[in-house]
Amino acid sequence: MTKKTFSLGRFGTDLKGRALETRTSLRDFFARYKGHPFSCIVMIAVVLAALVTAGIVIWILAYVLTKGLPNLKPELFEPVYTSENLSMLPALVNTLTVAALSLLIAVPIGVFSAVFMVEYAGSKNPFVSVVRTAAETLAGIPSIVYGIFGMLLFVEIVFKAYCLAAGILTMAIMILPLVMRTTEEALKSVPVSFREGSYAMGAGKLRTVFRIVLPSATPGILSGVILALGRVVGETAALIYTAGTVTRIPDGLLGSGETLSVHMYILASEGLHPDESWATAIVLIALVLVINGVAEFIANRFKKEY
Questions:
Q1: How would residue 7 be classed by pLDDT, with cut points 50, 70 and 90?
Q2: Could you give the CA distance from residue 251 to residue 249 in angstroms, rounded to a whole number?
Q3: How many angstroms separate the CA atoms of 233 and 143, rounded?
Q4: Of 66, 137, 143, 299, which alpha carbon lies 20 to 30 A from 12's?
Q5: Integer Cα distance of 257 and 103 in angstroms
Q6: Residue 9 region, left (φ>0) first, then alpha (ψ -120 to 50), else beta?
Q7: In angstroms, what CA-CA distances link 22 with 9, 18, 44?
Q8: 34: three-class secondary structure by DSSP
Q9: Separation between Cα atoms, residue 24 and residue 22, nearest integer Å
């Protein structure tokens, strides 16, 4: 038995309401925009912009792979760094440590702050306007400023030394506005009917927020977490001034250690080991891709459940 399809432009639906994709020829594409030249020009510009963006990403990846793949060697992953092996493994471990702990600090604070501003305070509250303005201002500050702030506060006053703890706290402060603003927008995108339905069933404010609103906004919140994580993994300037440039895995958070991006920057700036810096760039890109893939998988699971 063949399924009947009702045309809906590019997509149709079968008898069970499931979406079916239909092919559109080039002639149909131009026929659709016949008599609307401006819409056709905008559509072509959007497609060209997408192609240019994808082309730039592919070109960068291909260039880095061409430069770095021949230089990936087993000695680059030895547990102890020496001037002979130039191992990046200590920097990789430090990167994962800084990224995980900075998110552990920034994400709860940012999410709960956004919940307070959206669900409890209200958009007309003057305190919310001040916090939102402060968050937008902090999001636009260059990372070098955060590095100097972290050095003056955490390195000079709190810990009295360059250490991972100073870098973690600095990164947490730096990504906090990003997490807060993305969470706020994700919470605003949840339909009001979800809240009203929960209240109609007898649920209170707190239960509605944690059982209805936050799960529905989780994909948007994870998008902000992914952006924050990418900023931490790729950060260099702020971590040079706080975590230091020691090429080892410290015994604790009060010890100094460089991250992967700092390791790559030092190798490239010295001019003595450009091949190893390209190899480090491959590992850094692979790390970001893996993290983004895992986060995207989790977000898709939440989308299917809610």
A1: very low
A2: 7
A3: 13
A4: 299
A5: 18
A6: left
A7: 8, 13, 20
A8: coil
A9: 7
Percentage of the residues of the chain whose pLDDT score is greater than 70 = 86
First to last CA, the chain: 33
pLDDT of 76 reads: 86
| pTM attached to this predicted model | 0.80
Give how far Cα 24 sits from Cα of 3, 7, 8, 186, 260, Å. Answer: 19, 11, 11, 34, 46
List the alpha helices (DSSP H) in 78-142. Answer: 89-115, 126-139
Reading phi first (left if > 0) and then psi (alpha if -120 to 50, else beta), residue 86 is in: left
Residue 161 has pLDDT above 60, yes or no: yes
| Contacting residues for 299 by C-beta, under 8 A, at least 6 apart | 218, 219, 222, 223
Let me know: does 254 contact 165? Beta carbons within 8 Å.
Answer: yes
Kindly calculate the radius of gyration of the chain based on its CA atoms and give it in whole angstroms. 24
Which amino acid is it at 102? S
Long-range contacts of residues 297-306, Cβ cutoff 8 Å, at least 24 apart: 298/222, 299/218, 299/219, 299/222, 299/223, 300/219, 302/215, 302/218, 302/219, 302/222, 303/219, 305/215, 306/215, 306/216, 306/218
Task: Please provide the size of the chain in residues.
Answer: 306
**182 and 227 in contact (C-beta within 8 Å)?**
yes
Q: In terms of DSSP H, where are the helices of the chain?
A: 26-32, 37-68, 89-115, 126-139, 143-150, 164-188, 192-200, 205-208, 214-233, 237-242, 260-270, 274-305
Quick one: 267 exposed, middle or buried, by C-beta within 10 A (0-12, 13-18, 19+)? buried
d(CA 139, CA 142): 8
* Concatenated DSSP letters of 58-94: HHHHHHHHHHHGGG--GGGG-SS--TTT---HHHHHH
Q: For residue 8, what are the CA distances in angstroms to 19, 23, 279?
A: 10, 11, 49
Determine contact, residues 76/279, Cβ cutoff 8 Å: yes
